[in-house]
Amino acid sequence: MLLTLFANPAARAGFNASRRLTPKLDARKRLRIAEGVSLWLAVLMMLFVHPLYAEASEGNEERAGQLYLMDGQSSWQQPALVLDSDFKVQVSGLLAQTRLTRSFKNTSDQWQEGVFVFPLPEKATVYGLEMTVGERRVVGRLEPKAQARKTYDKAKAAGQHAATVEQQRPNMFTSRIANIPPGETVRVDIRYQQPVSYRHGEFELRLPTTLTPRYMPGETIADAPKHWQSGWATPTDQVPDAHEISPFTVRADDVSPQSHRATIALDIESGFPLAEVTSPSHSLHTNIDGTRATVTPEGDRVLMNKDVIVRWRALAGREPAAAVFHQQWQGQDFLMAMVLPPESTGPVLRRELQFVIDTSGSMAGESMVQAREALLRGLDTLRPGDYFNVIQFNSQAHALFTQPVPAERHYLARARHYVHNLQADGGTEMTGALSLAMSMNRAPVEALVQQMVFITDGAVGNESALFEKIRQGLNERRLFTVGIGSAPNMHFLREAARWGRGEYTAIHNSGEVNQALKKLFAAMEAPVLTDLEVRWPSEGSESNPVPSKPGDLFLGRPLVQVIQGVPAAGELDVSGKLPGGRRWSTRLNLNHAAPATGLNRHWARGQIDELMDTARLDGESPDQARIIRLSMAHRVMSPFTSFVAVEEQPVRPAAENLESEQLPTLLPAGSRSGMLRYPQTATFWPLFSALGLVGLMFALAVAMLNRRATA
Amino acid sequence: MSRFLVLLTSASLIVLMFGLWIPFKALVAQELLEQAWSESQAQQTEQRPWPWADTWPVARLELPEFGVSMIVLEGGHGESLAFGPGRVFGGEHGPLILAGHRDTHFRHLQNVQPGNQLRVQDQSRRWQEYEVTDVAIVDSRTEAIDTHQLPQDSVLLITCYPFDTLDARGPLRYVVKARPTTQKGPNNAVAIL
Q1: pLDDT of B182 over the 70 cut
Q2: How far is A29 from B169, CA to CA, in rounded Å?
């Protein structure tokens, strides 16, 4: 600061001005006075400048609740890498293929490695990686995970361009890009496909763009390896990979205005005449032409702080009730069939309904409002004769009533009051909540249908353990999940409902609560089709459909199955039990199958999921070798295989260092950050005082030496 | 030669003055804050200690074992930390997180041991007793405070570390964690810092 003062031209002007004031005095005296005056001016100047200086630095100070990226000096810094994303989605029938191009622009003058943890749709199958540097394109290979890491690390150390993508969770991936030259851009193309969801006559596609920070239950493991570390969380005994799935979360204005924006374009070939394309999350530009539609969100580049949801429906009366797709891949036949169950409702059953609501910190903000509203809507659906209870959980679980109570006015009033006062804070200890809900005494009435409604954003790191818990403890209950927030963990919501033999839904904004819940509660009345039997023609030992055992079907929800090794001929026979107990069956002619692509990948992904499921059921570790074989054969990524692309020629000179940067994700829209950075908590006074004292002592010493010399 | 001496002496004096100005400000401000604090307690409103202040007193913090009592200001920004410890987070809900300069208000933290007492008074004159449970040193470059995972009733005191270095921009932080003594909650949720 002293230096800035002496470099300040205004301070020097002070010297000059004071000299002109004293022309008559003799030179020596004049100089003395000048010095004195200018020194005092300097002091005054300093006193004035100091507050200004302090104010100027104020802008960079932290505000509570905000997370900044720090450099080694702990001062504020924008990420050096600017991230640009481009989604090109091609929807064809029931599958959507996406080319996701991410470009990492290095704005620093250092060589950089970028590490980016990002979400993909919950049923995404990654089948390709390509890296582009300038004019050069490198196609990625699929390798077993450990080997891919080695390949990447070697290339990184050797100074070659390299990129890798690996799977952390079925809907969470990490990409690493090594040796991005200063000022240059490396582009990484990821290709993935996802099934389109079809419910209640509406097709829906969800493109997640950011992650809700997840809660990591368990005790911290002290001596966890620091290698490949990229997140804010430390590994715990329940989530050993916590550090790999916890990217820092920042606000949109913490990154460069160019960064964390995405361009999105959808090309929908629906196969039926389209009535409309809508989105609850973004306003869209749509161009519908018969069965085709091109869709882009308004405003060109959208901020990556919430899921992009696009829905389309057919003209009234033209909704598809069944569909068959066929693909030949490497001489093998793949068939995909979709059958819609009949719209029938059975007798109204009396229920015991347990509402479990997540009031953890990640729900703070808009999510909590939606969750409360959802629960209140749920309470409205209770009928006389029903029993219910409300359980909230954060770090601990708490039940409103010690056992389910009848849906009578005063109990409902108490429940509404309780729900109105729910606050979001604390951890996400779901295990405790599930235990409490599942061990609770049943209502003292026979023949109640037991149901559990779980309202959460699913922001936890120990999904797998929770699925196990649900599978083991649920008994006759069915579990229904309601996803909340701008970026819920859809994988958790979907799988929890599947293991709980129930249904799931997601709410994207407060305006949607009613509609989404009406559908869910309608579906909850009873499954439309149970004891499902699907018979494919000429089903040999070779063919194995996925899902191999489709669960019960709920209202408005189709059966979708993919099979390998069955040619497009003959008839598919689907039958099941209706709510009344009658049997229902339908036949589907396979000869008219529409051509499609990606069926083999969808099938392979399904097979891998089933292998993982079997392992979980048997309590064994999954058959890695078989999963890797499947994954390699169909070129789809799995939990045990990663894509890696390496450019042959080294580019980084050996003398140059490589910095590594973990790219943050944006805080989901409407959610309140709970992450704080440690503030700056030291002053300069010890330094200044020390400097001042040293200077004074030095001056004193010189003065004494001087005196001795003159004496 | 004398010219050089005068220059050196005055320059050193200025630097020293700037250095001492910081603890002086920290000391004097606390006196001024006392008044604003008692006023805000009396009127149950936020009272700015001086009209142009960016911050206001929100609590009083005491470390009885060290005979220290100070007024806590709102915000963890430099403006409030210059005059007193700042409340970075907390209030009605959630953990209370306070930050202070290691060389002024929070210099006593270096002697704090687990088991030490800590008291916080809020605007309505209620005192809450805490006991220090844990003292940790963290690296602010790689770690953040996840307020959602801290126990709801805990207090965190944060200052820079090490205490006796001249470098004011070091990355290490000294974190003192405390839990209430009067109502002992289960201490199962260990905060991941």
Answers
A1: no
A2: 44
3-state secondary structure of A337: strand
- Residue closest to A144 by CA, chosen among A612, A625, A642: A642
| Mean pLDDT, rounded, for A329-355 | 86
Supply A361's token pair: 């910190």
Strand A308-314 versus strand A322-329 pairing type:
unpaired
Greatest distance between any 2 Cα atoms in chain A: 122
Please tell me which residue of chain A has the smallest CA distance to B23.
A685
CATH architecture of A322-343+529-634: Sandwich (2.60)
Domains and CATH numbers, chain B: 2-180 (2.40.260.10)
Q: Side chain identity at A418, as an amino acid letter? A: Y
> Residue B16 and residue A67: Cβ atoms within 8 Å?
no
Please give the residue that has the higher pLDDT: either A10 or A672: A672
Query: Which pLDDT belongs to residue A44?
Result: 62
Residue A68 near residue A77, CB atoms below 8 Å: yes
Instruction: Please state, rounded to an integer, the average pLDDT across all residues of chain A.
Output: 84
Residues B12-56: tens digit of each pLDDT: 898 888 888 888 888 888 888 888 888 888 888 887 887 777 788
AA letter at A377? R
Return the SS3 of B75: coil
Q: In Å, how far is A665's CA from the nearest CA of chain B?
A: 15
A-to-B residue pairs, Cβ atoms closer than 8 angstroms: 225
Q: What is the pLDDT of residues A523-581, one digit of tens each?
A: 887 788 888 888 888 755 566 888 888 888 888 889 999 998 888 888 999 999 888 78
| Cβ within 8 Å of residue A286, ≥6 positions away | A276, A277, A293, A294, A295
The CATH class that applies to domain A351-524 reads: alpha beta
Q: Do residues A281 and A311 touch, judged by C-beta distance below 8 A? A: no
Q: How confident is the model at residue A56 (pLDDT cuts 50, 70, 90)?
A: very low
| SS3 assignment, position A380 | helix
Query: Which residue ranges make up each domain of chain A?
Result: 1-59, 322-343+529-634, 351-524, 682-711
pLDDT given for residue A674 in this prediction = 62
Measured in whole angstroms, the distance separating CA A130 from the mean position of its chain's CA atoms is 22
Token code pair at residue A639: 């939990």
- Give the pLDDT confidence score for residue A69 in this predicted structure: 38
Which of B128, B136, B134, B135 shows the shortest CA–CA distance to B180? B128
Nearest-by-CA chain B residue for A62: B77
pLDDT band at A37 (very low <50, low <70, confident <90, very high): confident
Q: Which of B16, B93, B167 shows the shortest C-beta gap to A692?
A: B16
Q: How far is B79 from chain A (nearest CA, A)?
A: 8
Substitution target in A681, A683, A689, A705 with the highest count of B β-carbons within 10 Å is A681
